[in-house]
Amino acid sequence: FRSSTSDGIADRWSRPDYLLQAAGAEQLVSVEVGDGPYASKSKIMCGLDELLEHLQEVQRGSAYLAQTPVAELGSRLEGDLEGLTAELGALWDVSPPSPYVWVGQGSVSPLHWDVQNNFLAQVHGSKYVRLHPADATGMYPNPGWDMRHTSQVALRVLLASAWGCAVHPT
Questions:
Q1: Lowest mean pLDDT among 30-44, 97-111, 150-164
Q2: Element (H or E) spanning 130, and its range?
Q3: More confident residue, 155 or 40
Q4: Which of 80, 90, 110, 126 could form a disulfide with 37 if both were Cys (CB 3.0 to 4.6 A apart)?
């Protein structure tokens, strides 16, 4: 998918100075803290500048900004995506998707499934994505409300049915 409305977004968003300027260096964000995809996590509030500084200093961070609505980070970042979300909404014939941002360093997500269609734009670093067919058996959802979209099964058990690829910025 190539869009004229997305020109330059990845370049800008991959620069911490742009994010800090657009969102505000002292913008408070809710950050998950914990080691590994299956470890218990706690949430702390910290400045976006503190999080980005921490992530630049470590190879594998234990702090992760997860599923934060772009609207919470300021109208300038939301404005960057306005045309792109409208195009994606038209492409999927749905109302424009709500953009979210994830920021981490060396983080690993547990086996999970999303309830909405997604469009992934990797703006810095790389991410390995492994997709399973919608009818894959053996996902065994976690019973708790807050973990209902994650599996009780370790990822390595279901590799046979997966399709995977590495995602990098263009």
A1: 150-164
A2: strand 127-131
A3: 40
A4: 110
Contact 2, 88 (CB under 8 A): no
3-state secondary structure of 76: helix
Whole-structure pTM value? 0.74
- What is d(CA 159, CA 105) in angstroms, rounded to the nearest whole number? 24
Parallel/antiparallel/unpaired status of strands 63-69 and 100-103? antiparallel
Tokens of 89: 């909404």
Do the beta carbons of residue 128 and residue 108 sit within 8 Å? no
Question: Has residue 106 got a pLDDT over 70?
Answer: yes
Asked if residue 101 lies in contact with residue 72, where contact means CB atoms within 8 angstroms, the answer is: no
DSSP string, 12-73: HHT-HHHHHHHH-TT-EEEEEE-SSTTS--EEEEEEHHHHHHHHHH-SS-SEEEEEEEGGGG
Strand order in the sheet with 28-33: 42-47, 28-33, 63-69, 100-103
In the chain the first and final C-alpha atoms are separated, in Å, by 12
